[in-house]
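Handout, page 2. Input:
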Amino acid sequence: MTVDIIVSIAGATLAVCALIAALMAMQAVRRWRAQCESLESSIAALRRELELVASISVRTGRRVQRVEHEFSGVAERVDLVESRTAPRSESLDQAIDLARRGADSDRLEQQFGLSTGEADLVARLHGRAKGG
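Output:
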C-alpha cells in the first residue's frame, strides 16, 4: 500500500464521516423545527385562551361594578331600617300597653307617631272592649 492509497482511503473515510455528520445535523435541525412549530402552535393557542380569559375578566369586572353600583346603598338602607325598627318596636310596645289601659287610636297616633291604620289596628287588637 502506498501513501497515495492510504491518503485516498483516509480522505474517503473522512468524506463519508462528514456526510454522515451532515445528515445527522439535518435530522436534528428537522426535529428542532418540528418542536419549534409545535411550541409556536401552543403559544398561539395559549394566546387565544388568554385573550378569552381577559375578555371574560373584563366583562365580569363590569358586571361586578354594575352590581356594586346598583346595591351600593343597600347596606346603608338596611342599617337605617334596623335603627328605625328598634325604637319603633319599643314605641309600638308602649302603644299596646296604653291601648290596653283604654287609650283610643287618636291618642296613639299623636303620642307615638303611628299612622291612622296602625293606631286603629293597635286599638282594636289590644284595646279594651267597648260596652263590656
